[in-house]
Write a structure and sequence with these properties.
Mean pLDDT: 80
Distance between the termini: 47 Å
Shape: elongated
Number of strands: 17
Largest sheet: 6 strands, antiparallel
Structural class: alpha+beta
Helix content: 40-55%
């Protein structure tokens, strides 16, 4: 169906399926608006009763015009396909929201009131929904509640389309009378509203079981555990509302949605005002009166006024910068180190998606690992208003974790919690901590931002654990660590093929091994495929766009595509310092020196104590031949991370340009003790050549050329040794070999000072032209 044009609707993608049909997103070509098309399942097309019920759904819902009910536009038949065209709701279902955990009392009240108002309008038209569940309550991007799927709605007094006694609806939300197959009325929808409220407040359904028959027995015969027992902070008046909605005898239940609203709205107002409700629930059923209508209108106005005061009040108390310090591993077992590292990294990643919040990178906070330091000191050094600290202890399959958010301005504890849980619950715990922290930071997030923050990239706890292991090993940046990390990412994907972050991890580290441990033609296509798959699964994943941009430029030399992806990444997350650093390097490499340095400087301002942002700024200044200025950020990088050999190499190059050979050699010697990548070997040979020791330089070059196949030799490292030896012909040969190998190290040729001896050579200019860098 996807891609077809049916009548005047262009079908774009499937959104989901239900008991009666499949829903697609489409574009109305006449009215130029997005719509949802619900098609009757092919299996039911030949069923006259199903078609009649399908038409009844459209007739029932089309009779309703209310902000909390999905609008029906028309019902059509084309080429044997029966479908309803309805309002397209940009958002997510309440079920998706609840998959992240229970809601606050205020959130649950706000949603319940809107559902009750939608039911009030439907019941006034003589329509009972009969299948109200968390799946067909949608939360739009503006947090407007929309009730969808009146597929089981039945007009009062209309003839039954099913045999008497047939049970219809979703079992867990059925009222006792519905479960018995008896005739239903609006009170059945009010029971379902009670189930929704219970689910929103506790995170689980009141009636559960392994089989539908068990659930039905529980609905008819058992009393669910009270909301207060499950969640002690629930306002008692709210628990009374839930209890009354879930009264098994419909005569003792709320009789109308009006009555429910009369109890919900004063409680919501009290919640917004921050005081306990003194409103008393009615002991007996009441009729709806004009006084109640007036009270409801006034209550709605007060609620809107309260919301306005919240959203427009000064932001003095808001925390707009935070650092997550490395969680301490109390297990004293190196094999569990990935837990503390992974949880720290996951929290940094989740918080970094918050708009208008600066989150210090993990590299900026690593200096505090294993140290006892007060929050005030960290706040001053990192320039943040809050610090999150924590400890992790694993005992077998159990995990003990504590976390604390501290205000660095007065060192008061904003939030703190201790958790003891099975290892399998680690994923849910990370999401819970993120949610609680953001609440305490007093941030004002839009519904879309809340959804983005809380949206899990996987629901498979084992896939999440494998992802953390992948991060742990790959981030060691040794060949063995990278190979092991990539294998863990692939295992995570095997368990959850829709795990976007695991695909991004593959992309990130495949780029990481390019020209250091593997040729570009081996690693870059894999990086591109992984980044594209991550974006396909989650277009909002800013980091995947950034890494796709890197592949476009480093490997494909496609500047336009790289520019487009970098801009999209920064639109999605303008506070990502590493993305800005790479974008700055891209601009410098393409000759836009001033703009690139400005981006790199902005990245350092976002994360001033990050080794990456400082080193990238140093590299950009070096490429612009501002050698004296490049020294400061490169030295800062090494002060922050003494083993960061990449920065040491560029510091050595800068010293060489300034004629400070001894200092350059000292940096190269230190780097050579850290890893065996070919750039270090090349820099060592080049240093000898620049010092006039050509015999030693040529000996080292010959050793490099004789390396075995399993030890990768990057062509640009040979080029720079040849240039230092004055062998222009051999250097040009290797430039062409590097081009054929699509070595990413060539992307800097346009501006890299080390290529200056080749600038006027036709063969060199030809390669620049082929790369689009001339």
């Amino acid at each position: 169906m996807t891609g077809r044009v049916i009548l005047h609707y262009h079908v774009q993608q499937a959104l989901g399926s239900g008991g009666m049909g499949i829903v697609y997103q489409a574009q109305d070509l006449k009215l130029k608006r997005p719509v949802a098309l619900k098609f009757l399942s092919r299996e039911l097309t030949s069923n006259a009763e199903a078609r009649e019920r399908f038409v009844q759904e459209a007739q029932a819902a089309a009779a309703l015009n209310h902000p909390n009910i999905c609008t029906i536009y028309e019902i059509e038949e084309s080429e044997g396909n029966f479908f309803i065209a309805m309002e397209f709701i940009e958002g997510h279902s309440l079920r998706e929201q609840l998959s992240l955990g229970a809601l606050s009392a205020g959130q649950a009240l706000a949603i319940a009131i809107q559902v009750a108002e939608g039911l009030q309008a439907a019941h006034a038209k003589g329509i009972v929904h009969r299948d109200l569940t968390s799946s067909n309550v949608m939360l739009s991007s503006t947090q407007r509640v929309k009730i969808t799927d009146f597929g089981l709605a039945q007009l009062f007094g209309s003839s039954l389309l099913t045999q008497r006694g047939t049970v219809m609806g979703t079992v867990a939300y059925m009222s006792p009378e519905q479960a018995r197959g008896k005739k239903v009325d609006p009170r059945t929808d009010l029971w379902a509203l009670g189930v929704l409220l219970y689910e929103m407040l506790t995170g689980s359904l009141p009636f559960r079981g392994d089989h539908p028959q068990v659930v039905i027995y529980s609905i008819i015969n058992e009393t669910p555990e009270s909301v207060l027992a499950r969640r002690p902070d629930t306002p008692p008046a709210l628990e009374q509302i839930v209890t009354k909605l879930l009264t098994k005898n419909p005569d003792e239940r709320y009789q109308t949605a009006d009555e429910v609203l009369a109890d919900l709205q004063p409680l919501a107002q009290a919640q917004q005002a921050g005081v306990a409700s003194t409103h008393r629930l009615a002991a007996t059923p009441r009729r709806f009166t004009k006084r109640m209508l007036l009270a409801g209108v006034v209550g709605a106005i007060l609620a809107l006024a309260g919301a306005g005061l919240y959203f427009f009040r000064p932001a003095a108390g808001m925390i707009d910068s935070v650092a997550v310090l490395p969680f301490a591993n109390l297990s004293n077992d190196p094999e569990t180190e990935y837990l503390s590292e992974g949880l720290t990294e996951s929290l940094i990643y989740s918080l970094s998606r918050l708009p208008h919040v600066k989150v210090r990178s993990r590299s900026a906070t690593l200096r505090y690992e294993g140290r006892t330091v007060d929050a005030g000191t960290v706040g001053k050094e990192l320039g943040v208003k809050a610090v999150l600290t924590g400890t992790v202890l694993q005992r077998g399959n159990q995990l003990a974790l504590s976390a604390e958010l501290v205000d660095t301005r007065d060192q008061s504890v904003i939030w703190g919690e201790q958790y003891n849980l099975p290892m399998a619950d680690l994923l849910a715990l990370q999401q819970k901590i993120t949610s609680e922290i953001t609440g305490k930071m007093r941030l004002r997030l839009s519904p879309r931002e809340q959804m983005q923050l809380q949206k899990p990239h996987t629901t498979n706890s084992e896939a999440y654990r494998l992802y953390l292991l992948g991060q742990h090993y790959a981030s060691q940046y040794t060949r063995a660590g990278l190979d092991r990390g990539i294998a863990y990412f692939e295992q995570a994907i095997d368990l959850d093929s829709s795990y976007a972050l695991a695909y991004f991890g593959l992309a990130y580290y495949y780029v990481g091994i390019t020209d250091w441990f593997a040729p570009a033609q081996e690693a870059m296509p894999k990086a591109k495929a992984a980044a594209e798959r991550a974006i396909q699964l989650d277009e909002s994943l800013a980091e995947a766009h950034a890494w796709l941009a890197v592949v476009h430029f480093w490997y494909e030399w496609n500047q336009a595509a790289a520019q487009r992806e970098f801009q999209r990444a920064l639109e999605l997350n303008p506070n990502n310092a590493l993305t800005r650093s790479y974008y700055g390097a891209f601009l410098v490499a393409t000759g836009q020196l001033a703009a690139g340095i400005a981006e790199a400087e902005q990245a350092r301002q976002l994360d001033p104590l990050s080794p990456e942002t400082n080193s990238f700024l140093g590299v950009c200044l070096y490429a612009a031949r501002r050698y004296e200025e490049a020294l400061a950020p490169l030295r800062t990088t090494i002060d922050l991370a003494p083993t960061y050999w990449f920065a040491r190499l560029y510091l050595a190059r800068t010293y060489q340009k300034l004629g400070r050979g001894e200092e350059a050699m000292a940096e190269i010697q230190t780097s050579a003790q850290m890893d065996s990548v070919s750039e270090i070997a090349g820099m060592k040979a080049r240093a000898h050549a620049l010092a006039g020791n050509h015999r030693a330089a040529r000996r080292l070059l010959q050793e490099m050329l004789a390396w075995p196949p399993d030890r990768f030799l990057a062509p640009p490292d040979v080029i720079k040794v040849c240039l230092a030896l004055g062998d222009t012909s051999m250097a040009l040969d290797w430039v062409e070999r590097a081009y054929a190998a699509r070595s990413f190290m060539l992307i800097g040729m346009k501006v890299d000072p080390e290529y200056d001896p080749l600038r006027h050579q036709p063969r060199f200019q030809a390669v620049l032209h082929q790369m689009g860098l001339d």
